[in-house]
Each structure stands twice: as C-alpha cells, then as structure tokens.
Specification:
Blueprint: E1 4-6, E2 11-15, E3 32-36, H1 38-42, E4 49-52, E5 59-60, E6 65-68, E7 76-77, E8 82-84, E9 88-93, H2 100-108, H3 110-120, H4 130-135, E10 137-139, H5 143-182, E11 189-191, H6 192-195, E12 196-198, E13 213-217, E14 233-235, H7 236-239, E15 244-247, E16 251-254, H8 259-262, E17 265-267, E18 275-278, E19 282-287, H9 294-301, H10 304-312, H11 327-330, E20 332-334, H12 338-376
Parallel strand pairs: 3-8, 13-18
Antiparallel strand pairs: 1-10, 2-9, 3-4, 5-8, 6-7, 6-9, 11-20, 12-19, 13-14, 15-18, 16-17, 16-19
Length: 382
C-alpha cells in the first residue's frame, strides 16, 4: 500500500491575478502579457486575452501545474505560459519528494478528483480554497517509483492523444469541406432568417397531450463539438413555460456569452417523440424545405466568420451579452442550391462514420489509461 500525504504538507499555492475586463484586450500589444483563462485549459482554446505587464512573480511556465478554483472545479492543467486568472492557482511542490509529471497525473486521478469535488461542496457555490486543497491526500511513493509510474502513464497517454488528434482532423476536414463547397459562391445574398425559420412557436404542438414525454436539454448538455446529451426527459406540461421549444432536425445556437463564442450548438437528433425543450439561451433555426438543410445551417453557424460577426453584434452588459434575434435577419449570405447542401450532408455523414470509429478507439485507449491509473495509485503498477 502506498503512503498517502496531505497535499499541503508537500506543496503551496499561488493565487492567480484579478484583471479588470477593460484591461483585457483581444490583440497583442507592446509590453503585454498573455492572460490565461479557464477555457484555455479546459477547451484547449487559443483565444487568449492580453494584459499590461505584470510582476514576474505572477507568471507561470508551461511546466507549472495549475488548478481551477471554481467553474470547472478541480480541473488540473499545464502547458501554457502567461499570467493566470484569479479563478485558478499555481501549485508549487517540493521537488525533493515529488516528480512533476507524477503529481500532474495524481491530481487528475479519480481518487484525488473525488476528494476535490467533495471539498468544493461546502459552500453555496462549488469552489475550492487553499485550506480544503491542502487537506486533499495524494499517494506518495518514493521519487524513483513516481518517475517509473509517470513514464508508463505517459506511454499510455500517447495512444489517447493519437486518437484525439485523429478526431480533431476529422473535425477540421468537415470545416474545410464546408469552405471548399460554399466559400466562393456568387449570386444574390439573402438574409439567414429568410432561409430558415427562427425560433418556431411551441403553439404548433399545443394539441398534444401535456403528459407526452419530450427531451429536455440544458446548456450543459450541448458541447462545443455539436454533441448532445439526451439523458433527461420531461413531460410537456413540466417544460411548457420558461423554456425554449425545438423539434427533430432543428439547429440550436447558444446566444449568450461565453457559450456562443465557445461554439455551443447542435443539430437536434433522436429527440423523444421528436420534440425537445431547453434553456432560453438557445436560438432555434429550422431549415425550410427545398431551401436549406440542417447540416448546412449548423456548419454555417459554427464557422469562425459567423461566430465573430455574431460576437460583434451582441447586446447587453459584460457577462450577460446575447446575440439578438434580428442578427439573423441582418446576416446575409448566398444560399447554395439544395442539391449542393445535400451533397455536403452526405459527405459529412461519411466523415462522421470514420470519426465514430476513431471515437470507439479513443474509448478503448481511455479505458486502458484509466485502468493503469487506478493500478498506479494502488501500488500495483510497478
């Protein structure tokens, strides 16, 4: 059995910096520092902010290990250089007893993460403080054993990363295909609101039995990759008021910051009884027969160009900015022939089939990695 030690006895913590929104710029400028936000770690986002030069003591290197205090509570990251936002902190550890790669893996293990999640529930908003993190226990084998464990886990992780990169390539291929097929179209531009129905009315299903089950989809159940968690069902009566209505093959588009900028949106497929309700922070775009397709609308609305224009047209105060409905009327584009849209959908389907195979491979490599991880912290790996 491996000895367990409280993290606070072998490590200390350095809080990130609080920087006002006006001081965070989207473009680099002379003498600036890179400001690191949570999404730069959790989503691998390269959308950095740039701030005036800070005291060197607040800088972190790509080798430093960080942890998220609130939001994505307990998330552990590394690999970025800059200045941390104040909802994260750096972990300074005793290198005489801890090997960095081992500590990184240990902190991300289910054994430690469960402790962090439990500790974060002691406040009204899930959050960590230095006192609770200090009490978290980690397995602490001898330094040489840590290095051996880290080496084995690194090799297993390479398999995971290969599968992840393959999936990313399929995503990039789809984006490239969209640009190749629709990027140079010429002709009269039409408003997007004339090519699809925006926010269809729930009155169209008012004749249905209110006890009918439908899918319920909060914002958290839609990913930035178009994936949807359909695990929640409710009756129509439960969601009739205070939620957004949509149906099979509709496209949902997150309208609030930062979900919109992060790319949240999806085609609604396999909804219970073909009907769904969800957060009011969705806009719903329904394709018009023989005019537009779900696949074309979805990939248009997730494109970088579209999202940047939507961001520039958001209204509201900081942290509560939203894309207004009239943006879809003002956004104009050359509509591709429906035959071309259908060809695109067929090619995307073929790409998605290959991506699904890569996803299964990733699941297997994840299973192998997690199995090795559990053995490592039980003292059964080396």
């Amino acid at each position: 059995m491996i000895e367990e030690v409280e993290l606070g006895k072998i490590a200390s913590f350095s809080q990130g910096q609080q920087v006002s929104i006006p001081d965070q710029r989207k473009e680099m400028f002379d003498g600036c520092d890179t400001f690191i936000r949570i999404i730069n770690y959790t989503q691998g986002s390269s959308d950095f902010r740039y701030i005036p030069k800070q005291n060197p003591k607040y800088h972190i290197t790509k080798h430093d290990i960080i942890m998220v205090r609130y939001g994505a509570v307990g998330f552990v990251g590394k690999g970025i250089e800059g200045v941390l936002a104040n909802n994260m902190f750096k972990i300074d550890y005793d290198k005489q007893v801890l090997f960095g790669d081992y500590l990184f893996r240990a902190l991300r293990s289910g054994k430690v993460q469960s402790q962090l999640i439990s500790a974060s529930q002691s406040t009204s908003m899930a959050a960590l403080n230095f006192k609770t993190v200090s009490r978290v226990k980690i397995p602490l084998p001898p330094l040489e054993t840590q290095k051996k464990i880290a080496a084995i886990l690194d090799e297993a992780d390479k398999l995971r990363q290969l599968d992840k990169r393959l999936i990313e390539k399929y995503d990039a291929l789809t984006q490239s295909l969209f640009l190749d097929m629709f990027g140079d179209l010429v002709g009269e531009k039409e408003s997007l609101s004339s090519l699809c129905e925006i926010n269809p009315k729930k009155s169209e299903i008012s004749n249905l039995d209110k006890s009918t089950l439908v899918s319920f989809i909060p914002m958290s159940n839609v990913s930035e990759k178009g994936e949807v968690d359909l695990s929640i069902e409710k009756t129509i009566d439960e969601v009739w008021s205070g939620f957004t209505y949509f149906a099979e093959r509709d496209v949902v588009f997150a309208k609030i910051t930062p979900c919109m900028e992060n790319g949240k949106g999806a085609i609604m497929r396999s909804l219970t009884n073909g009907i769904g309700f969800g957060t009011t922070e969705f806009h719903v775009l329904r394709p018009k027969e023989n005019k537009s397709s779900s696949e074309w609308i979805y990939h248009l609305t997730t494109s970088y160009h579209f999202r940047k224009l939507a961001e520039n047209n958001m209204k509201g105060s900081a942290g509560q900015k939203r894309v207004p409905t009239d943006f879809f009327k003002r956004f104009k584009i050359v509509c591709p022939p429906i035959e071309l849209q259908n060809q695109f959908a067929e090619r995307v389907e073929a790409i998605e089939a290959q991506k699904a195979l890569a996803q299964k491979s990733l699941e297997k490599s994840e299973e192998l990695f997690n199995s090795l991880l559990q053995k490592a912290f039980k003292g059964e790996l080396v």
